[in-house]
Design goal:
alpha+beta; single chain; Alpha-Beta Plaits; Beta-Lactamase; 3 domains; 22 helices; about 725 residues
């Protein structure tokens, strides 16, 4: 039908060219309007992205200053009777850095006793903040909230302006006794310069508002108030208490130069004329030749019966695939497929039935494999598939089993349904060959071995790999069967709050009661589940069962927060965050009762979609804990940018903490780091009282280990919580 319409149109070349000219010009107009709208949006979006970066840099600069004040707070919390010389030494050390802090002051019991530098500030010594209502209001707010308050910018006596930071300090065994307040003065203009902020950046006006952390309700204290127009882009700068708002606006309202608009139209008219002239020439002189060339190219590269790539085209594609996977050091699988008893189909029902079977077989294969995988018919009833970018041979086995099952379904041919099987051989690149000939030959050999073994079988060329893959697939299928048949069970290991001396948390650990193998250790099946994808089904069951058992705990009066391990693979699915939240909602579970334990690699992977899911879950109230902390990247930098709620010190460090000085130092540093960053620390693998006493003396928040209790079935854990009495601590 298309060829008939095309022939009618090209029978009147001038009319066809004129219609095409008008059509292309119309499309060009739509494109130009869309393009200029896009350019305007891009300009505004680019400004927004730059502003985000600017805001992040400003937050980073503020936080780097607050780290100094938190460090001073930690020193005072440890040494509340700090001397003048100790204070001066600390202040000199802090103020030598490239920071904008100009003054530091200590006010125990809200009376200023120490100022650095002292010169020029002697009159402030002995000042009781309670006699200065304006300053006391901010200090009282910081004390009531136990948070750092950033006030200002305020005008100093010296004439310039600065931010005044108030840091409340509490001491005592329970941190409930007010020691006083630390005051830091930050030169705001220097702070902004260090963050790269200027009133005119990238040709835009920059301004900041939110005096005293009041956000959009606060006054503008940097730049012009006119910058905050209706069309401005704005970003929040988060403070410890409150926020600022930074804005950027353009003097010309994000408009594009009109000279570009006319240039676009000139090019559009010119392109439309060229296309119309080219179409006129093509339609009058080369139409038949082009059709002939396209037909010849198609016949040279594709099989006329199945529309799959033929041998020649496939070999070209396979060579390119080999080159690509060699460069990236990736694996792929080559399937060689041959129909069983295809000759009998031709002999009994004729070649027309055989051709229809091949066509239907090819269509069904195309619907099963991924769109970017290669599929070809080499000759007769021989087909090949290239499964790209696989991580393990188990993936190839799973697809082969799916093909075997779905391709074995009956085919409707000439009023009857024919059932045919196939034999399939698999070769893995690069283990089974690193060039085209070797891979095809080895996959072909594996296919013939499958036929020789009785047909309708799957064979790997590499026997050792075949056995390992079959074991993985067997475990994969047994896991799925076990979930259906209720073979899995959750154990719970208690976690003690050292400050409250109570069981406030626990960790849910899966156990497999295999009908033949008995109790199977997670070490044996969790890694396989992560490779095959069964971890997603298992993880969903664990969350469901945890929710169910949390409700049973609540009925018995046991209120604990449960930690659930989450694999990196589980975060790769679409909308998993919403699915998990829906599960909690279905069981009416408060999100604050759930902690997801993840590994450091999930945060360091840099995958934006995974980080978005983590942020969504944390915003909903689910806490996050980094499991086995200290064994991976353990970078403070990512903890600052991707805040978590808990760190779990790996049991390997706790095991030798009494005998190994290096492990002891590392454990103490992790605990102190957690305190500085506001992250609770859980020590795993605590096995005796000496370890417990040492961790308690370091200020560790929680402990978990055999000294407290082993992982135990639900009923036993419930009884444990109901009769629990505190352990002794130093």
């Amino acid at each position: 039908m298309f060829h008939r319409i095309f022939k009618q149109l090209t029978g009147r070349p001038f009319s066809f060219a004129l219609a095409l000219f008008c059509f292309v010009l119309f499309l060009s107009g739509l494109f130009i309007n869309h393009e200029f709208s896009r350019i305007r949006e891009n300009i505004k979006h680019e400004a927004f992205v730059n502003l985000l970066t600017l805001g992040a840099r400003l937050e980073g600069e503020i936080n780097s200053h607050l780290v100094v004040l938190r460090g001073l707070k930690a020193e005072i919390a440890i040494n509340s009777d700090i001397t003048q010389s100790e204070f001066e030494s600390l202040a000199q050390e802090y103020l030598q850095s490239q920071l904008s802090i100009s003054h530091l002051g200590l006010a125990p019991d809200l009376v200023i006793t120490n100022i650095y530098p002292l010169q020029g500030n002697e009159r402030a010594l002995g000042l009781d903040y309670r006699t200065v209502p304006q300053q006391m209001a901010v200090i009282q707010e910081a004390i009531d909230k136990n948070e750092i308050i950033i006030a200002g910018p305020v005008k100093l006596v010296q004439g310039n302006t600065a931010l005044v930071v108030r840091v409340p300090v509490f001491i005592g065994e329970n941190r409930d006794q007010l020691w006083g307040v630390i005051t830091g003065v930050i030169r705001d203009q220097m702070l902004f310069e260090q963050a790269g902020i200027a009133e005119n950046l990238w040709g835009l006006n920059i301004a900041i508002r939110g005096h005293n952390g009041l956000g959009e309700e606060g006054d503008v204290f940097y730049g012009s108030e006119k910058t905050f127009t209706a069309d401005a882009v704005m970003v929040d700068v988060i403070l410890p208490s409150g926020r600022w708002q930074i804005a950027a606006s353009s003097n010309n309202g994000w408009q594009v130069d009109q000279s570009h608009y006319f240039s676009y139209w000139f090019v559009a008219i010119l392109v439309s004329l060229v296309i119309a002239m080219a179409s006129y020439l093509i339609s009058t002189n080369y139409r038949e030749k082009l059709i002939a060339i396209e037909t010849a190219n198609y016949r040279a590269n594709y099989d006329g019966l199945t529309n799959l790539s033929n041998r020649y085209h496939f070999t070209q594609q396979l060579k390119a695939t080999i080159h690509e996977h060699q460069r990236h050091q990736h694996k792929f699988a080559l399937f060689f497929i041959d129909l069983d008893y295809f000759k009998e189909v031709n002999d009994n029902w004729g070649h027309h039935a055989g051709d229809e079977l091949l066509r239907l077989f090819a269509d069904r294969m195309s619907s099963i494999v991924r769109s970017d995988d290669l599929l070809a018919r080499l000759a007769g009833d021989e087909f090949v598939i290239v499964l790209k970018d696989i991580e393990t041979a188990t993936q190839a086995e799973l697809l082969a089993e799916k093909l075997q099952m779905e391709l074995g379904e009956p085919y409707p041919i000439q009023g009857r349904h024919l059932s045919v099987t196939h034999s399939l051989g698999i070769a893995i690149f690069p283990e089974d060959g690193q060039d085209l000939e070797a891979l095809l030959q080895n996959a072909d050999r594996a296919m013939y071995e499958a036929k020789r073994a009785g047909k309708n079988r799957i064979f790997f060329f590499n026997e050792q790999l075949s056995q390992e893959v079959k074991r993985h697939v067997q475990v994969h299928n047994e896991i799925l069967d076990g979930l259906r048949h209720g073979e899995f069970e959750l154990y719970f290991q208690p976690i003690m709050d050292l400050e409250q001396q109570s069981i406030s948390k626990c960790e849910a650990l899966v156990r497999w009661n295999h009908p033949k193998k008995g109790l199977v250790s997670p070490i044996e099946f969790i890694p396989i589940a992560e490779h095959t994808g069964a971890i997603c089904n298992l993880g969903d069951w664990i969350l469901e069962e945890t929710c169910h058992l949390l409700n049973k705990m609540a009925e018995k009066g046991v209120d604990v927060q449960v930690s659930i391990n989450r694999s990196v693979a589980e975060f790769q699915g679409r909308n998993v965050d919403q699915r998990w939240l829906n599960t909690l909602k279905k069981y009416h579970i408060d999100t604050s009762r759930v902690v997801f334990e993840i590994t450091e690699s999930l945060l360091m992977g840099g995958v934006e979609s995974q980080l978005e899911k983590i942020n969504t879950l944390r915003a909903s109230g689910i806490a996050f804990s980094i499991d086995d902390f200290g064994t991976g990247y353990s970078a403070i930098n990512y903890l600052r940018h991707y805040p978590v709620d808990y760190l779990k010190i790996d049991r390997s460090f706790v095991k030798d903490v009494m005998d190994d000085e290096q492990d002891r130092t590392l454990v103490e540093v992790i605990i102190k780091m957690g305190q500085t960053l506001g992250i609770k620390v859980v020590a795993e693998g605590v096995e005796d009282q000496a370890q417990l006493d040492l961790l308690s003396s370091y200020g560790c928040d929680f402990i978990q280990g055999y000294h407290l209790g082993k992982p135990m079935p639900f009923d036993q854990f419930l009884s444990f919580c109901l009769v629990y009495s505190p352990l002794e601590t130093a």
